């Protein structure tokens, strides 16, 4: 009868309890799945780095040094590169003395060479390959910054910045690439910059070198996918390192100033951890930046005339501040 049907069907409150009970179970199940997915992802990332031969250029200071620490702790067999043999050996000794009881770690090797001398990069690559017979992950990190006006900058300075930031990593990548193609595996990461996506005044040589870097490695990614080789471009905003101190100026002298933006930038250790994560999860293009630079990148694409106006006003303000 109708009344017995009414008696058997749940009341309004009961229905609510049933629905919220099911929602709770669904939520719990989803959280469990997310946790499991994260765990599996972390395990896969760890396995990707453990025992891998990882080459880091510019390992003697700043971001490269922190990458060395983070990848060493993750169980990579490191080859540390830079121009300063003493600093590389010091870091190698420091890392060799650190061992994580939970993970197998390896004492790093070092290879000394100047990236701006593209003629010697091929022999440096041979030396790098001899360390472990292969390269699994190449981190093109070394770089130099620049400060100056285009009017007052000699073409030699433009070439110097381009040699270190662009032709050096390109030459090293080309020298290591055939062995990766032969192995049908490998990962090449380059540290670019937000300035590889947008150009800001008084950084012409630097921004140009990073834009070229982005373009080259984007082309490379498409060309080597068929060989199972991964390519990542990592573009951070300001990082608290000596980059501005070591920057070159328009006449070729060293800038020697710790810029406010750099001093207030990201902690290099946090950036190195983000790089480890990006490599482990094979991310292809990562920008590590705050809201304003991120908006600026979108503005440059979607509304270029507004972006150009903002940059011109920034140039006027910077020039005025310098003249005062
Ligand atoms: N700091 C930032 O705000 C920031 C922001 C975005 C992107 N980045 C990028 O991050 C990367 C690392 O820079 P950093 O901030 O760590 O600066 P850093 O402390 O000045 O380190 C630069 C490294 O590059 C190496 N290097 C410079 N010229 C070289 C050459 N001719 N040949 C070989 N190695 C050379 C240096 O090694 P030696 O002097 O020992 O040879 C040093 O280890 C650079 O590509 C930079 O463009 C930095």
From TrEMBL:
The keyword Oxidoreductase applies. The chain crosses the membrane at residues 15-40. Keywords: Membrane, NAD, NADP, Oxidoreductase, Transmembrane, Transmembrane helix. Residues 52-242 form the Ketoreductase domain. Gene3D superfamilies: NAD(P)-binding Rossmann-like Domain. This is Dehydrogenase/reductase SDR family member 7B. One of its GO terms (molecular function) is oxidoreductase activity, acting on the CH-OH group of donors, NAD or NADP as acceptor. It comes from the Eukaryota. Pfam families: adh_short. The keyword NADP applies. Belongs to the short-chain dehydrogenases/reductases (SDR) family. Putative oxidoreductase. GO terms for biological process: lipid metabolic process. One of its GO terms (cellular component) is membrane.
């Amino acid at each position: 009868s109708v009344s017995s049907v009414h008696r058997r069907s749940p009341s309004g409150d009961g229905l609510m309890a049933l629905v919220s009970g099911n929602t709770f179970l669904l939520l719990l199940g989803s959280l469990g799945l997310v946790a499991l997915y994260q765990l599996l992802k972390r395990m896969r990332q760890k396995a990707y780095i453990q025992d891998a031969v990882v080459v880091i250029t510019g390992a003697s200071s700043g971001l490269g040094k922190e990458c060395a620490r983070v990848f060493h702790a993750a169980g990579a067999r490191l080859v540390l590169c830079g121009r300063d043999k003493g600093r590389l050996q010091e870091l190698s000794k420091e890392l060799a003395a650190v061992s994580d009881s939970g993970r197998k770690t390896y004492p790093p090797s070092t290879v000394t060479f100047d990236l701006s001398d593209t003629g010697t990069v091929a022999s440096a690559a041979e030396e790098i390959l001899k360390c472990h017979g292969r390269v699994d992950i190449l981190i093109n990190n070394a770089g130099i910054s620049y400060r100056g006006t285009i009017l007052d900058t000699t073409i030699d300075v433009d070439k110097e910045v381009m040699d270190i930031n662009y032709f050096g990593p390109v030459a090293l990548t080309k020298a290591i690439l055939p062995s990766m193609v032969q192995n049908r595996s490998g990962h090449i990461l380059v540290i670019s910059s937000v300035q590889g996506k947008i150009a800001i005044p008084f950084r012409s040589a630097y921004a140009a070198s990073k834009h070229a870097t982005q373009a080259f490695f984007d082309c490379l990614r498409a060309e080597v996918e068929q060989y199972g080789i991964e390519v990542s471009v990592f573009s951070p905003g300001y990082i608290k390192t000596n980059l501005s101190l070591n920057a070159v100026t328009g006449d070729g002298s060293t800038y020697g100033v710790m810029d406010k933006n750099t001093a207030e930038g990201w902690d290099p250790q946090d950036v190195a951890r983000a790089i480890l994560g990006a490599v482990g999860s094979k991310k292809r293009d990562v920008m590590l930046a705050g809201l304003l630079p991120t908006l600026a990148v979108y503005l440059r694409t979607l509304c270029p005339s507004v972006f150009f106006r903002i940059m011109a006003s920034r140039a006027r303000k910077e020039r005025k501040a310098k003249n005062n």
